[in-house]
Amino acid sequence: MKTTSIHTLLDGFQKPELQDLGSLLGRELSPRLRKSQLVEQLDVYLHGEPGRWLTHLMERDVRLLRDLVNAGPEKVQYLDYAVYPSLVEVSGLVEHDDTDENYHKVWISREVYDIVAPFVDKAIRKGEHSGQFDIERVGLGYLNLYGIIPTSVFLDLVTDYYEQRYDSCYATLMQMLQQSPMVKLCRYTDKWGDYLCSPCISDTEEIHTLRQQMKQKRRASFTMEQAREAGSGAPYFTVGMRSREGMALEQLYRRLGYEGFELVKAEHDTWIEAQYTAEYNEALFHPLMDSPNGQHLDEQSWKACCQIVADYADSVPKWALNGLSAREAGQMQLDAASWENLQPDEGPAEETGDYPHWNMPELTVSDGYPRMDGFPLGFAIPHVAPDDPCPCGSGLRYAHCHGKYLS
User: What is the pTM of this model?
Assistant: First the structure.
Protein backbone atom coordinates (compact mmCIF):
# COMPACT_ATOMS: atom_id res chain seq x y z
CA MET A 1 0.00 0.00 0.00
CA LYS A 2 1.41 3.35 -1.05
CA THR A 3 1.29 6.19 1.50
CA THR A 4 2.46 9.77 1.26
CA SER A 5 4.19 11.75 3.99
CA ILE A 6 2.42 14.90 5.13
CA HIS A 7 5.30 17.12 4.01
CA THR A 8 5.28 15.59 0.51
CA LEU A 9 1.49 15.85 0.42
CA LEU A 10 1.53 19.56 1.28
CA ASP A 11 4.29 20.21 -1.23
CA GLY A 12 1.93 18.99 -3.96
CA PHE A 13 -0.51 21.87 -3.37
CA GLN A 14 -0.32 25.29 -4.96
CA LYS A 15 0.26 28.33 -2.76
CA PRO A 16 -3.42 29.52 -2.72
CA GLU A 17 -4.53 25.97 -1.86
CA LEU A 18 -2.14 25.86 1.08
CA GLN A 19 -3.56 29.14 2.38
CA ASP A 20 -7.12 27.83 2.02
CA LEU A 21 -6.23 24.60 3.78
CA GLY A 22 -4.58 26.49 6.60
CA SER A 23 -7.65 28.69 6.99
CA LEU A 24 -9.97 25.67 7.13
CA LEU A 25 -7.78 24.05 9.77
CA GLY A 26 -7.55 27.16 11.93
CA ARG A 27 -4.09 28.35 10.90
CA GLU A 28 -4.06 31.62 8.97
CA LEU A 29 -0.97 31.88 6.78
CA SER A 30 0.55 35.09 5.42
CA PRO A 31 0.28 35.44 1.62
CA ARG A 32 3.73 37.03 1.69
CA LEU A 33 5.37 33.73 2.58
CA ARG A 34 7.04 31.61 -0.07
CA LYS A 35 5.44 28.27 -0.87
CA SER A 36 8.23 26.36 0.89
CA GLN A 37 7.59 28.42 4.02
CA LEU A 38 3.84 27.72 3.85
CA VAL A 39 4.52 24.00 3.53
CA GLU A 40 6.91 24.08 6.49
CA GLN A 41 4.54 26.06 8.73
CA LEU A 42 1.55 23.82 7.91
CA ASP A 43 3.63 20.70 8.44
CA VAL A 44 4.76 21.93 11.85
CA TYR A 45 1.17 22.91 12.73
CA LEU A 46 -0.31 19.55 11.76
CA HIS A 47 2.30 17.64 13.74
CA GLY A 48 2.46 19.97 16.71
CA GLU A 49 -1.13 21.10 17.36
CA PRO A 50 -3.57 18.28 16.49
CA GLY A 51 -5.66 19.14 19.54
CA ARG A 52 -6.35 22.50 17.88
CA TRP A 53 -6.85 21.69 14.20
CA LEU A 54 -9.03 18.65 14.89
CA THR A 55 -11.57 20.97 16.53
CA HIS A 56 -11.76 23.00 13.31
CA LEU A 57 -12.99 20.03 11.30
CA MET A 58 -16.62 19.28 10.58
CA GLU A 59 -18.21 16.53 12.64
CA ARG A 60 -18.20 14.13 9.71
CA ASP A 61 -14.42 14.49 9.28
CA VAL A 62 -13.59 13.99 12.95
CA ARG A 63 -15.80 10.91 13.19
CA LEU A 64 -14.25 9.48 10.02
CA LEU A 65 -10.79 9.96 11.54
CA ARG A 66 -11.95 8.30 14.76
CA ASP A 67 -13.26 5.27 12.81
CA LEU A 68 -9.98 4.97 10.92
CA VAL A 69 -7.98 5.27 14.14
CA ASN A 70 -10.07 2.50 15.67
CA ALA A 71 -9.39 0.35 12.60
CA GLY A 72 -5.66 0.99 12.84
CA PRO A 73 -2.97 2.57 10.63
CA GLU A 74 -3.01 1.58 6.96
CA LYS A 75 -6.12 -0.59 7.47
CA VAL A 76 -8.36 -0.15 4.45
CA GLN A 77 -12.02 0.62 5.11
CA TYR A 78 -14.59 0.20 2.34
CA LEU A 79 -17.08 3.04 2.05
CA ASP A 80 -19.79 4.04 -0.38
CA TYR A 81 -19.18 6.94 -2.75
CA ALA A 82 -20.67 9.94 -0.95
CA VAL A 83 -22.32 12.86 -2.73
CA TYR A 84 -19.53 15.20 -1.65
CA PRO A 85 -16.00 14.50 -0.40
CA SER A 86 -14.78 15.20 3.11
CA LEU A 87 -12.15 17.81 3.90
CA VAL A 88 -9.72 15.24 5.31
CA GLU A 89 -9.95 13.29 2.06
CA VAL A 90 -9.55 16.36 -0.16
CA SER A 91 -6.53 17.45 1.88
CA GLY A 92 -5.02 13.96 1.66
CA LEU A 93 -4.84 13.44 5.42
CA VAL A 94 -7.11 10.47 4.76
CA GLU A 95 -5.79 8.53 1.80
CA HIS A 96 -8.12 6.85 -0.65
CA ASP A 97 -8.25 4.57 -3.67
CA ASP A 98 -11.09 4.86 -6.19
CA THR A 99 -9.91 2.32 -8.75
CA ASP A 100 -12.80 0.04 -7.76
CA GLU A 101 -16.05 1.59 -8.96
CA ASN A 102 -18.03 -0.33 -6.35
CA TYR A 103 -16.14 0.73 -3.24
CA HIS A 104 -14.39 3.85 -2.02
CA LYS A 105 -11.33 2.62 -0.11
CA VAL A 106 -9.93 4.86 2.62
CA TRP A 107 -7.18 4.57 5.24
CA ILE A 108 -4.74 6.68 7.25
CA SER A 109 -0.98 6.41 7.23
CA ARG A 110 1.03 5.54 10.30
CA GLU A 111 2.19 9.18 10.44
CA VAL A 112 -1.37 10.56 10.58
CA TYR A 113 -2.43 7.82 12.98
CA ASP A 114 0.32 8.75 15.45
CA ILE A 115 -0.69 12.42 15.23
CA VAL A 116 -4.45 12.15 15.72
CA ALA A 117 -4.95 8.97 17.77
CA PRO A 118 -4.34 10.60 21.19
CA PHE A 119 -6.60 13.58 20.43
CA VAL A 120 -9.51 12.52 18.22
CA ASP A 121 -11.85 11.30 20.98
CA LYS A 122 -11.27 14.51 22.95
CA ALA A 123 -12.07 16.56 19.82
CA ILE A 124 -15.41 14.77 19.45
CA ARG A 125 -16.28 15.34 23.10
CA LYS A 126 -15.38 19.02 22.78
CA GLY A 127 -17.49 19.41 19.64
CA GLU A 128 -20.50 17.93 21.42
CA HIS A 129 -20.00 19.84 24.68
CA SER A 130 -19.32 23.24 23.12
CA GLY A 131 -22.36 23.08 20.85
CA GLN A 132 -20.19 23.22 17.72
CA PHE A 133 -21.63 20.00 16.29
CA ASP A 134 -25.17 21.01 17.23
CA ILE A 135 -24.85 24.37 15.46
CA GLU A 136 -23.33 22.59 12.46
CA ARG A 137 -26.24 20.12 12.24
CA VAL A 138 -28.81 22.90 12.44
CA GLY A 139 -26.93 24.99 9.88
CA LEU A 140 -26.62 22.07 7.47
CA GLY A 141 -30.27 21.29 8.12
CA TYR A 142 -31.43 24.72 6.97
CA LEU A 143 -29.20 24.40 3.91
CA ASN A 144 -30.64 20.97 3.09
CA LEU A 145 -34.20 22.22 3.54
CA TYR A 146 -33.81 25.36 1.42
CA GLY A 147 -31.02 24.17 -0.85
CA ILE A 148 -29.69 27.67 -1.42
CA ILE A 149 -30.27 30.55 0.97
CA PRO A 150 -28.91 34.11 1.26
CA THR A 151 -26.11 34.37 3.79
CA SER A 152 -27.96 37.06 5.76
CA VAL A 153 -31.05 34.83 6.12
CA PHE A 154 -28.89 31.86 7.13
CA LEU A 155 -27.21 33.89 9.86
CA ASP A 156 -30.59 35.08 11.18
CA LEU A 157 -31.91 31.51 11.36
CA VAL A 158 -28.83 30.14 13.14
CA THR A 159 -28.73 33.13 15.50
CA ASP A 160 -32.38 32.57 16.49
CA TYR A 161 -31.61 28.94 17.24
CA TYR A 162 -28.45 29.76 19.17
CA GLU A 163 -30.11 32.41 21.34
CA GLN A 164 -32.93 30.06 22.27
CA ARG A 165 -30.72 27.05 22.92
CA TYR A 166 -27.53 28.43 24.49
CA ASP A 167 -26.86 30.95 27.19
CA SER A 168 -23.96 32.61 25.40
CA CYS A 169 -23.30 35.89 23.75
CA TYR A 170 -23.80 36.71 20.07
CA ALA A 171 -20.07 37.32 19.61
CA THR A 172 -19.35 33.70 20.59
CA LEU A 173 -21.67 32.45 17.84
CA MET A 174 -20.15 34.75 15.25
CA GLN A 175 -16.67 33.56 16.15
CA MET A 176 -17.83 29.96 15.89
CA LEU A 177 -19.37 30.55 12.46
CA GLN A 178 -16.36 32.48 11.19
CA GLN A 179 -14.15 29.53 12.08
CA SER A 180 -16.63 26.93 10.87
CA PRO A 181 -15.51 24.92 7.82
CA MET A 182 -19.21 24.45 7.07
CA VAL A 183 -19.59 28.16 6.32
CA LYS A 184 -16.24 28.35 4.52
CA LEU A 185 -17.11 25.41 2.28
CA CYS A 186 -20.78 26.18 1.64
CA ARG A 187 -20.66 29.94 1.14
CA TYR A 188 -20.23 31.40 -2.33
CA THR A 189 -20.97 34.55 -4.32
CA ASP A 190 -22.05 34.82 -7.94
CA LYS A 191 -24.35 36.93 -10.09
CA TRP A 192 -27.27 35.93 -7.86
CA GLY A 193 -25.67 37.31 -4.69
CA ASP A 194 -24.08 36.10 -1.44
CA TYR A 195 -25.38 32.62 -0.61
CA LEU A 196 -24.81 29.41 1.24
CA CYS A 197 -25.81 26.14 -0.40
CA SER A 198 -26.35 22.56 0.70
CA PRO A 199 -23.22 20.43 0.23
CA CYS A 200 -25.45 18.01 -1.68
CA ILE A 201 -25.88 20.53 -4.51
CA SER A 202 -23.34 20.15 -7.28
CA ASP A 203 -24.75 22.83 -9.61
CA THR A 204 -26.08 25.98 -7.94
CA GLU A 205 -26.88 27.55 -11.32
CA GLU A 206 -29.28 24.69 -12.03
CA ILE A 207 -31.21 25.37 -8.81
CA HIS A 208 -31.38 29.12 -9.47
CA THR A 209 -32.67 28.39 -12.99
CA LEU A 210 -35.33 26.03 -11.63
CA ARG A 211 -36.40 28.71 -9.16
CA GLN A 212 -36.82 31.17 -11.97
CA GLN A 213 -38.98 28.69 -13.84
CA MET A 214 -41.14 27.99 -10.78
CA LYS A 215 -41.47 31.70 -9.91
CA GLN A 216 -42.06 30.84 -6.25
CA LYS A 217 -41.35 33.90 -4.11
CA ARG A 218 -42.62 32.63 -0.75
CA ARG A 219 -40.06 30.97 1.53
CA ALA A 220 -41.09 28.08 3.77
CA SER A 221 -40.75 28.14 7.56
CA PHE A 222 -39.28 25.26 9.55
CA THR A 223 -38.99 24.39 13.20
CA MET A 224 -35.55 24.07 14.72
CA GLU A 225 -36.21 20.38 15.27
CA GLN A 226 -36.86 19.93 11.56
CA ALA A 227 -33.59 21.71 10.81
CA ARG A 228 -31.61 19.52 13.20
CA GLU A 229 -33.13 16.37 11.71
CA ALA A 230 -32.33 17.49 8.16
CA GLY A 231 -28.71 18.26 9.07
CA SER A 232 -27.83 15.09 10.96
CA GLY A 233 -26.20 12.00 9.54
CA ALA A 234 -23.69 13.59 7.14
CA PRO A 235 -22.99 12.80 4.41
CA TYR A 236 -26.18 10.71 4.02
CA PHE A 237 -28.84 13.22 5.02
CA THR A 238 -32.53 12.36 4.98
CA VAL A 239 -35.36 14.86 5.15
CA GLY A 240 -38.97 14.41 6.18
CA MET A 241 -38.65 10.89 7.54
CA ARG A 242 -40.77 11.72 10.59
CA SER A 243 -43.70 12.81 8.46
CA ARG A 244 -46.50 10.41 7.54
CA GLU A 245 -45.09 10.09 4.03
CA GLY A 246 -41.55 9.61 5.32
CA MET A 247 -42.57 6.85 7.73
CA ALA A 248 -44.47 5.14 4.93
CA LEU A 249 -41.38 5.29 2.71
CA GLU A 250 -39.20 3.78 5.45
CA GLN A 251 -41.71 1.03 6.06
CA LEU A 252 -41.84 0.33 2.33
CA TYR A 253 -38.05 0.11 1.96
CA ARG A 254 -37.74 -2.12 5.00
CA ARG A 255 -40.34 -4.48 3.58
CA LEU A 256 -38.51 -4.50 0.28
CA GLY A 257 -35.36 -5.75 1.98
CA TYR A 258 -33.34 -2.63 2.79
CA GLU A 259 -31.56 -2.63 6.13
CA GLY A 260 -28.77 -0.76 7.92
CA PHE A 261 -26.64 1.47 5.72
CA GLU A 262 -28.44 0.35 2.55
CA LEU A 263 -31.70 1.65 4.03
CA VAL A 264 -30.13 5.01 4.88
CA LYS A 265 -28.62 5.24 1.40
CA ALA A 266 -31.95 4.41 -0.31
CA GLU A 267 -33.76 7.09 1.71
CA HIS A 268 -31.00 9.63 1.05
CA ASP A 269 -31.02 8.95 -2.69
CA THR A 270 -34.80 9.27 -2.83
CA TRP A 271 -34.66 12.65 -1.08
CA ILE A 272 -31.96 13.93 -3.45
CA GLU A 273 -33.84 12.85 -6.57
CA ALA A 274 -37.09 14.31 -5.21
CA GLN A 275 -35.50 17.73 -5.72
CA TYR A 276 -35.41 17.29 -9.49
CA THR A 277 -38.99 16.40 -10.39
CA ALA A 278 -39.94 19.53 -12.33
CA GLU A 279 -39.88 17.10 -15.21
CA TYR A 280 -40.05 13.31 -15.11
CA ASN A 281 -37.08 11.87 -13.19
CA GLU A 282 -36.79 8.10 -13.39
CA ALA A 283 -33.88 8.11 -10.91
CA LEU A 284 -36.40 8.94 -8.17
CA PHE A 285 -37.66 5.36 -8.45
CA HIS A 286 -34.27 3.64 -8.76
CA PRO A 287 -34.13 2.56 -5.08
CA LEU A 288 -37.53 0.97 -5.59
CA MET A 289 -36.58 -0.65 -8.90
CA ASP A 290 -33.31 -2.00 -7.45
CA SER A 291 -34.73 -3.17 -4.13
CA PRO A 292 -33.85 -6.71 -2.98
CA ASN A 293 -37.45 -7.94 -2.99
CA GLY A 294 -38.99 -5.64 -5.61
CA GLN A 295 -39.05 -8.28 -8.34
CA HIS A 296 -41.46 -10.38 -6.26
CA LEU A 297 -44.26 -7.78 -6.29
CA ASP A 298 -47.42 -8.20 -8.29
CA GLU A 299 -48.64 -5.36 -10.53
CA GLN A 300 -51.04 -3.87 -7.99
CA SER A 301 -48.43 -3.85 -5.22
CA TRP A 302 -45.82 -2.33 -7.57
CA LYS A 303 -48.12 0.58 -8.43
CA ALA A 304 -48.87 1.12 -4.74
CA CYS A 305 -45.11 1.25 -4.01
CA CYS A 306 -44.59 3.82 -6.76
CA GLN A 307 -47.39 5.90 -5.26
CA ILE A 308 -45.70 5.92 -1.84
CA VAL A 309 -42.41 7.11 -3.37
CA ALA A 310 -44.26 9.81 -5.32
CA ASP A 311 -46.21 10.92 -2.24
CA TYR A 312 -42.96 11.31 -0.34
CA ALA A 313 -41.43 13.30 -3.19
CA ASP A 314 -44.45 15.60 -3.25
CA SER A 315 -44.29 16.16 0.53
CA VAL A 316 -40.61 17.06 1.07
CA PRO A 317 -39.23 20.62 0.93
CA LYS A 318 -37.89 21.38 -2.54
CA TRP A 319 -34.89 23.53 -3.30
CA ALA A 320 -36.50 24.98 -6.41
CA LEU A 321 -39.54 26.07 -4.34
CA ASN A 322 -37.64 27.86 -1.53
CA GLY A 323 -38.31 25.00 0.86
CA LEU A 324 -42.00 24.58 0.05
CA SER A 325 -43.25 21.13 -0.87
CA ALA A 326 -44.83 20.41 -4.25
CA ARG A 327 -48.23 20.21 -2.54
CA GLU A 328 -47.80 23.49 -0.71
CA ALA A 329 -46.70 25.30 -3.87
CA GLY A 330 -48.99 23.48 -6.30
CA GLN A 331 -45.97 22.87 -8.57
CA MET A 332 -43.65 19.99 -9.46
CA GLN A 333 -46.21 17.37 -8.43
CA LEU A 334 -46.02 13.83 -9.78
CA ASP A 335 -48.81 11.78 -11.29
CA ALA A 336 -49.15 8.15 -12.34
CA ALA A 337 -47.74 8.93 -15.79
CA SER A 338 -44.36 9.37 -14.10
CA TRP A 339 -44.11 5.69 -13.19
CA GLU A 340 -46.73 3.74 -15.14
CA ASN A 341 -44.12 2.22 -17.49
CA LEU A 342 -41.52 1.43 -14.81
CA GLN A 343 -40.73 -2.13 -13.85
CA PRO A 344 -38.70 -3.58 -10.95
CA ASP A 345 -35.18 -4.76 -11.62
CA GLU A 346 -35.22 -8.27 -13.05
CA GLY A 347 -32.64 -9.60 -10.65
CA PRO A 348 -32.11 -13.30 -10.04
CA ALA A 349 -35.17 -14.69 -8.29
CA GLU A 350 -34.38 -16.78 -5.23
CA GLU A 351 -37.14 -19.20 -4.42
CA THR A 352 -35.85 -19.84 -0.92
CA GLY A 353 -38.84 -18.53 0.97
CA ASP A 354 -36.58 -16.28 3.06
CA TYR A 355 -38.00 -13.02 1.73
CA PRO A 356 -41.35 -11.67 2.96
CA HIS A 357 -44.24 -12.01 0.50
CA TRP A 358 -46.64 -9.13 0.93
CA ASN A 359 -49.18 -7.05 -0.93
CA MET A 360 -49.37 -3.30 -0.43
CA PRO A 361 -52.92 -1.94 -0.36
CA GLU A 362 -53.84 1.00 -2.55
CA LEU A 363 -52.90 4.00 -0.39
CA THR A 364 -53.27 7.74 -0.71
CA VAL A 365 -52.17 10.53 1.57
CA SER A 366 -55.77 11.30 2.49
CA ASP A 367 -56.31 7.70 3.61
CA GLY A 368 -53.16 7.68 5.73
CA TYR A 369 -50.47 5.05 5.92
CA PRO A 370 -50.23 2.05 8.23
CA ARG A 371 -47.56 2.47 10.89
CA MET A 372 -45.35 -0.09 12.54
CA ASP A 373 -46.60 0.50 16.07
CA GLY A 374 -43.86 0.01 18.62
CA PHE A 375 -41.13 -0.05 15.96
CA PRO A 376 -39.16 3.19 16.32
CA LEU A 377 -37.57 5.01 13.43
CA GLY A 378 -33.92 4.59 12.67
CA PHE A 379 -31.96 1.62 13.90
CA ALA A 380 -33.28 1.32 17.46
CA ILE A 381 -35.14 -1.98 17.77
CA PRO A 382 -37.25 -2.92 20.83
CA HIS A 383 -36.53 -6.08 22.78
CA VAL A 384 -38.28 -9.00 21.10
CA ALA A 385 -37.99 -12.70 21.87
CA PRO A 386 -36.42 -14.71 19.01
CA ASP A 387 -39.60 -16.70 18.30
CA ASP A 388 -41.95 -13.70 18.47
CA PRO A 389 -43.25 -12.03 15.27
CA CYS A 390 -40.89 -9.33 14.05
CA PRO A 391 -42.29 -5.84 14.88
CA CYS A 392 -41.64 -4.69 11.30
CA GLY A 393 -44.78 -6.50 10.20
CA SER A 394 -43.14 -8.96 7.78
CA GLY A 395 -44.86 -11.97 9.36
CA LEU A 396 -41.52 -13.71 9.98
CA ARG A 397 -40.10 -14.69 13.32
CA TYR A 398 -37.82 -12.01 14.78
CA ALA A 399 -34.79 -14.34 14.66
CA HIS A 400 -35.29 -14.79 10.91
CA CYS A 401 -36.01 -11.15 10.13
CA HIS A 402 -34.53 -8.02 11.78
CA GLY A 403 -33.05 -10.09 14.61
CA LYS A 404 -30.57 -11.78 12.33
CA TYR A 405 -28.90 -8.43 11.55
CA LEU A 406 -28.07 -7.67 15.18
CA SER A 407 -24.83 -8.68 16.80
Answer: 0.81
